[in-house]
Each structure stands twice: as C-alpha cells, then as structure tokens.
Amino acid sequence: MAQRLDLLDPAEVARLGGIEIVAEGVVEGFLSGVHRSPFRGFSVEFTEHRAYQPGDELRYLDWRILARSDRLFVKQFEEETNLRAMILVDASRSMAWRGSPERLTKRAYADRLAAALALILLRQRDATGLVTFDEQVRQVIPPRVKAGQWTRVVRGLIATPDGSGTAAHAALQRLTALLARRGMVILLSDLLFDRDLALAALRYLRHRGHQVIVFHLMDPAEVELGGPPEVRFRDPESSVTVVVRPRELARAYADTVRREIAAWRKACRRHGIAYHHVQTDLPFGMALRLLT
Amino acid sequence: MTFINPLALLGLVAAAIPALLHLLQRRVPPELEFPAVRYLSAAERESARRLKLRHLLLLILRTALIIVIVLAAARPLVRMGGAGGGAHEPTAVVVILDNSPSSGVVVDGRLVLDRLRVIARTTISRTTSADRVWLMLCDGVLRRGTREALLASVDSATTGWQRLDLVQAVDRAARLVDAQPLPGREVHVLSDLQRSALAEGRAVVPAGVRVLSLAALDRAVANRGIAEVRVTEGAAVIELKGAGAGSASGDAAQPVPVTIRVGAGRRDRGEISARGLATPGSAVTIEIPVQNLSPGWWVGEALLEPDELRADDRRPFAWRVAPAARVTATAGAGGFVAAALAVLREGSRVRDGSDVTFTGGEALAGELSIVQPPADPALVGQANRALGARGVSWQWGGGATSTPGPISAPTLNGIAGVQVIRRYRLERTSPGSGGSGGGSSDQSADDVLATVNDEPWLVRAGSTVLLGSRMDTAWTVLPATPAFVPFIDALANRIVRGEADVTTAEGAPRVEFRRRGTDTTGATVFGPDPRESDLTPAPKSLVETALGGEDRVEVLGDAEFASERFSGTRRTDGSGFLLVLALLLAASELGVATRTR
Which backbone phi and psi does B189 adopt, to 5 degrees? Predict the structure, then answer.
C-alpha cells in the first residue's frame, strides 16, 4: 500500500532521496488531500473578511460594515495567478543542529519544507523566489514563474552552506529593498536572534503590504531539555557556554521556551503576521497543513 | 551527651561525603553544542535563587541524614525527665554495704544484711561498663572490680566482725567519686544506720556528689550484749550493754543471766564455770573460784542467752594466773617506791622476797632488777659499769637532761602523758660489751616500753628494767599520780618478767597469745566493738547531718531508693528517635530532590 510521504516522519522521508524528490513526494501527497491551494491573494474572488491591520490598503476596506457597525474590516480575495512569494530560509549555524542523529537538522528540515512550498506555489503559477541568509544574505533568487524556477530554488538551497551567526534583521531589511512589489514572505527560521529587531523588520514588510508567514522551527531537544546529569552547553554561534544540570533546569527551561513561543506568537498576531511553531519531527504535510 | 558505642562516631567523617561529591561533580562536565543557550541562560537566571536554595537544602539534608544515622549507630544516651527505667550516664558510684556485726540482727525472721545485700546487688547489676563502681564492706576497703566480681563479693558477704564508721566511710567514698571524671557521682549507703555508727563529726561531701542512704527500719530491735569482760584477781567484771524497743525501762533493762566459763575444752585443766545476773547498762562482778586454777594463761568466755543479735552474746577473755611477785627495794629506790610496794603488799599484789629488786643504781642483786638512775650523778658511771657487768646492753648517758616532756607508752596506758622533769638518756651500748651475768645478751629481748621526747625512758633488757628518771617528784610527777601504784605493780608482776598486758582488738571472738620463744608474753582478745550492741537507729536528721548535709544526703525507703539511684544521670537510648528523624530527613531529601526540579 502506497504511503503519503507528507505524513511520514521527516527523517525517514529525507532518506528517500534529495530535496527535489522529497519535495515532490510531499507536495503530491499534500495536494491530493487538500485539493486547493492554501494561499490567498488579492484577486477578484472575495473569500472572507478580517480585521483591519495598520498597513492594509484602504481600498480593501469594507465600507458597508464600517457604516453598519463602526468597525474596520478588510476584504480578502482568492488570488489566482499573480501572487509573488519569497521564501526566506535561515542558514545560520544554529540551524545546522539536531538533538538526535535520528532527526533532521533544522536547516535540512527548512530546506525540504521550503522546496515543497515553492513547488506548490509554482504549480499554481505564482512567482516564487528564495533568499537564504545568516549574518548576511547568501542567496537571492528573484520570484519568477517560468519553467525551471523550482530547480533554481532547489539549487539555491543546496548551494547555501551553513553559516555562522545570525543577524536576521539585517537580512530582512535588505529584503525590503528586494521585495518592491507587494506579495507573500515566508520565513523559515529557528528565530534564535533578537526578537525586537527581527520583529521590526517583519513589521516593516507587513507595513509595505506583504503577507508574512513565519515558521518557527525547533528541534524537539530544544523544547524538552535533556542530557547528562551535569553538562556545559555551548552556543555554536556565540560560543557562550553555560553549565547546567538538565534535570534540575528542565522545568524552568520548558517554561522559558513556552513563554518565548507565546511571546513570538503574540507579537506576530499583533502585527498581522502568521506564526507557526514547528518541531522538526513534525511530518512535512502537517507543517504545510498549518497554512490552510 | 554520651554514647554506648562511641567508636561509631568515627563515621561522622562520612558527613563530608555530600560536600565532597558536590565539589567533585563540579569538576569536568562534558561540553555539548546547544543552540538555545539563550533560553537556558534565561531559565537559569530565573531559577538561580531557587536552585541555589535547593542545592543548599539538599546538601544540608544529606549531611544531616548521614550525621543522624551515625549518631543513631553510636546509640546516644539522652537525659530523661522522670524516674523509672532506662540507662544512665557514666557514673562513679561507691556502694557501702555495712556488714558490720550489727547487720547480723534478725528482724521479722530475716537478717538485716540480707535486705542490704539485695539492694546492693540490684544497684551493681544496673551499672554499665561505662560506670566505675566500688564496693566497701565493714573492713573499710574500697574494692574496685568488674560488675560480676563485685556481685560475687556481695553474694559472698557475710556478717563481719568489724565496726564501720559510716561518717569516715562516706567521707572517703565521696572524695573518691568526686575525683572521677564522670558525669554522675553517687555514694550509696546500705546500712542498718545505728546511731553509734555515725561517730562524731561530719562527712565532707563535695558538691555534685549525691549520697543516697537507705532508711533504717521503722522499729528498733531490743538487744543485750556483752560489752567488756575484765578479769581481776579471782573475779570477772562483766559490762553489759542493752538498747532497743524496750529501752532502759523495757525488756532490755531486765537482769539477765550471765555465764562465765574458764578453761572450756582443756581436758588437762578442767573447766570452771560461774553464773550471775547482769543488768544492761551496768557492770557485774562474778567471782571465780581461783583456787582451782593452776598458774598460767587461761582462756574463758562470758555468755548470754541468745537474742536477735548473736554476735555480741559471747565474748572471750584471757587471764594470767600467777602468784604475786616477791619484791624487795633497796634504800636507793626511794621513798615513793617503798610506799607503793607497801600498798601492793597490803593488797597481796606483791610479797616480801628477793625475786624482784627495786634499786637506785647501786649494785644489782636478785634475779630480776628494776633500776633507777643514782641520785648522785657521780655514781652514774659506777652504775653503768654494774649494768655492763650484768650484761645489760643499756646505760645512762652522761649528765641528766632537764628537757621536760610527757611520757609516751603505747602499752602502758596509765602513765601515758605524765610529765617528766629530769631524766638521763638511756643509751644502748655495743652488743656483747657486758658480761654474761644474770642478764641476757639476747638483743631481741630488749624492749623500749616508754619514751620521752622520742628518747627511750623505760627499757627492758633481759631480766633488768631501766628507768630514765628516779621515781621522785623532783624528777617526774608520776609518783604523785594515781597511776603510780599500778605502774609499780605492772613493773613487779609483769614488765620485769617480760610479759605484756592483755590487749583487745576487733575481730571474730577468739584469743591469740603472743610468744617469745617458748614463753607466752601476752594475749590479744578479739571481739566485736561494744558499740555494735547498741541497735538504736539514728534519726533521719542525724543521718543527713552526719553524712554530708541535707542538700547532699537523701534518706530513702526501699522503693524510693530503687527509683532515685542514678536518677541524677538517668538517660535513655536516643537511637530510636534518631532513626525516625533519619527517615524524616530521607523523605524530605527525596521530596526536595524530586519536587523542586
């Protein structure tokens, strides 16, 4: 019996082949279950209302609702062909980590998820591009819809080595210049950088009218602290070390991680940014389904 | 705090294990890469105070757990509030078991000593190896030994024949236990508490020493006992003592028959007995048919009918039956000697004859001589030569000394303390310097019978007795004292013959003779101290006062005594409590270790 690759364990799926094969398999399985694109743009087909966010164009305001209830809502439309999507993949050193050899690194997971996303977008003829970054922007593949774009995106992912530190806000600021035309921005990152600076850049994108989606990738070992009775943990980016007893600190650490996720979620929601927390043991199909 | 197993305290070193482990574990932790260090740092910052407190709490709990377990293994003794059982702190204790003759009295069909022995046994049984225990019996000897050895001594203790002065006994015992470096110090007095056992004076009991005295029996016991037997020429003077329930007006004051027996058990001489009635508290003279007794030493005894205390119902005596000495005195012997001899002659204590000669230093004559220094100092040298010629190894030194001094004569009680004004020093000549006349050259026969200022004053050398002073009031006040005539009597009838007086001593009733060669020179009559016959119990106030004072002495009944002994240091084994505490600590440690993560 054939199995849907989008619902298998990511590490097992990754063992089937390269990024292309995995992404295609995942997308095939995913689309057979969904039947329609999860992405919505600003076309002529109205889909739903949502609360007005600063930065939304006033022409999409629903004046009737405003007149009736004195509340600001904008109309959303299903986009058909003209969506410009830019996938941002964090290639910093911290992304090259995994808590167990049985799992993918965050970077490997992000690459495969980015490839799958690009494939879905390109299949519905949306212009899709790629930006990889660590402390600086490493690869920029402008959004196109022509044939061979997906292959370029995949090659861009493969060609980007693991970086060192992360200064996402700098890379995101540079992106604002690249994304002159309004579209969709999908960020795949472990978000291990300064939240306020990163949020400022994302907010700016949002202000420019982009639809922003954030995938917060975490290894399960980063959520539940474990390890030897006493251990010195070293940050691969900053080389900062800290000696802890994981069993003692596990509860406090889990609380801290929960608070951090909640803080990201709350900040993103406040600014109209879609936020999704994804652990690297989550099947790719489930991660894609978060967008529907 | 003290411990039953103090060696287990060495385990306290293990209390350092948690701290050492804590330090050792911190040495080289493995290093791992972890991207989310910023979350870790934040979590650690937030939990730093809690974790520090947890670490400290765990360290304290684990260290305390080890300490408590080690202490429990050492089995500490904890002070207890009330009376009752339980162990006690190490205690130095002297058990005074008064097995003097009075403890042999039978009350309600039971020996008093049995009651005392049971309590002594219980006390010693309750001691531990950490205690120091002594046992004192009526001989006053402090016996130190193991518990088993002392129990054996108690079990084998029978009624003794020596009187125990409780004041002195407690005084010694208190000083002994006070010198011991132990927390508890007790003196247990197990006695019938005769009033007479508490001599004058007061025991000095240092602070911190408890004296526990068993109370005397509620009721007094009537008793009659022979206190003393004195034998004179042809008669025995018997002094009776009596005390108890009837007191002087009761049964104890009634006349009781006394039997005198002389020569009992000597088939070669036969036995003479006589009877009389004696009243307790007085003396009775019983005539003895002396004409039936041949000369020599006789042993007799005075007997009473049996009563509750058997020890004093029989008292032996020694009697020297001898004819009166035949005495003559030269002119140089002086008027005082002549007068004394006249008195003695009148009382048939001496007869006229030449067996014993009193002289004033002139030429010695007779078989036995009692010689005074010459009145004329110029004749001293001549008298010394005469002594030498007789083989006497003593002589008068040159020049009379005028250093006065009292006479010291342990065996001649009558003249002791009498002042001597003038005297010659009596000096020993070299052995064998004299001839071998009527004297003896046997140096062992020489006796210094009296001294003045630690210098010989009255000596006997063989058959000659030398005096350092003339029997004249210009030389000594002795002729003017009542002791003078008995002294001359003793000189003529006993001393010059080399015979000693009959002495008395404490011990099982018997007579022991002193011998010199084949001659019997004296006798010692053993018997209980007459004060043992008085069974009047001492009042509580007297006991408290005599044995150290009210603040140090507790006079207790049997039950109180059992509960109060060692109560000042009574302790209980605290290991059970510590084990419970250890369990609580272990549970707390488990809780802190698991719940505070």
Answer: -105, 110
Distance from CA of A4 to the nearest CA of B (A): 32
> Is CATH 3.40.50.410 the right assignment for the domain spanning B90-217+537-572?
yes
pLDDT beyond 50 at B445: no
pLDDT for A167: 66
Region of residue A172 (left: phi > 0; alpha: psi -120 to 50; beta: else): alpha
Q: Are residues A53 and A184 in the same domain?
A: no
- Residue B436: the pLDDT is 38
Chain B CB contacts of A236 under 8 Å are 33-35
Q: In sequence order, what are the residues at sequence separation of 6 or more whose Cβ sits closer than 8 angstroms to the Cβ of residue B592? A: B54, B57, B58, B61
Of A192, A231, A247, the CB nearest to B29: A231
Return the pLDDT at A230.
Answer: 83
Residue B288 has pLDDT above 80, yes or no: no
- Chain A, residues 152-191, CB within 8 A of chain B, namely 190
**What mean pLDDT do residues B162-186 have?**
91
- The pLDDT, as a whole number, for residue B252 is 52
**What is the token pair recorded at B121?**
């046994």
How close, in Å, is residue A204 to chain B by CA atoms?
26
Of B32, B38, B41, the CB nearest to A227: B32
Task: Give chain A positions within 8 Å (CB) of B593.
Answer: none
**Higher-scoring residue by pLDDT: B85, B399:** B399
Compute how many other C-beta atoms are within 10 angstroms of the C-beta atom of residue B25: 12
Chain B CA closest to residue A237:
B35
Given a cut of 70, whether residue A98 has pLDDT beyond it is yes
Nearest CB partner across the interface for B34, out of A229, A234, A250? A234
Nearest to B46 among A247, A250, A252 (CB): A252
d(CA B455, CA B452): 5
Whether residue B264 has pLDDT greater than 70: no
**Any CB–CB contact under 8 A between A239 and chain B?**
no
- SS3 state of residue A246: helix
Pick from B534, B530, B532, B522: which is nearest to B302 by CA? B530
For residue A173, how far is the Cα from the chain centroid?
Answer: 17
Domain that holds residue A168: 5-33+81-289
Average pLDDT, chain B: 83
User: Does A232 contact chain B (CB < 8 Å)?
Assistant: yes
Domain boundaries in chain B?
Answer: 2-75+574-595, 90-217+537-572, 224-322, 325-495
E strand or H helix at A87: strand A84-90
Nearest-CB residue to B597 (from A192, A234, A247) = A247
- Asked if residue B563 has pLDDT above 70, the reply is yes
Residue A38 domain flag: no
In which order are the strands placed within the sheet that holds B272-278?
Answer: B272-278, B256-262, B296-304, B314-321
Quote the pTM value: 0.52
Q: What is the CATH number of the domain that holds A219?
A: 3.40.50.410
Closest partner CB to A233 (pick from B40, B51, B597): B40
Q: Name which of B22, B28, B40, B53 to mutate to probe chain A: the one with the most chain A Cβ atoms within 10 A of its Cβ.
A: B40
A251–B33 CB contact, under 8 Å: no
CATH topology of domain B224-322: Immunoglobulin-like (2.60.40)
Q: Which of B155-159, B354-358, B518-522 has the lowest mean pLDDT?
A: B518-522
Q: What is the ipTM of this complex?
A: 0.79
Put simply, whether A101 touches B (Cβ < 8 Å) is no
Please tell me whether residue B284 adopts helix, strand or coil conformation.
Answer: strand
* A230 chain-B contacts, CB cut-off 8 A: 25-26, 29
B250 sits in the region (left: phi over 0; alpha: psi -120 to 50; else beta) called: beta
- CB contacts under 8 A, A 189-228 vs B, are 190, 192, 218, 222, 225, 227-228
Confidence label for A178 from pLDDT (cuts 50, 70 and 90): confident
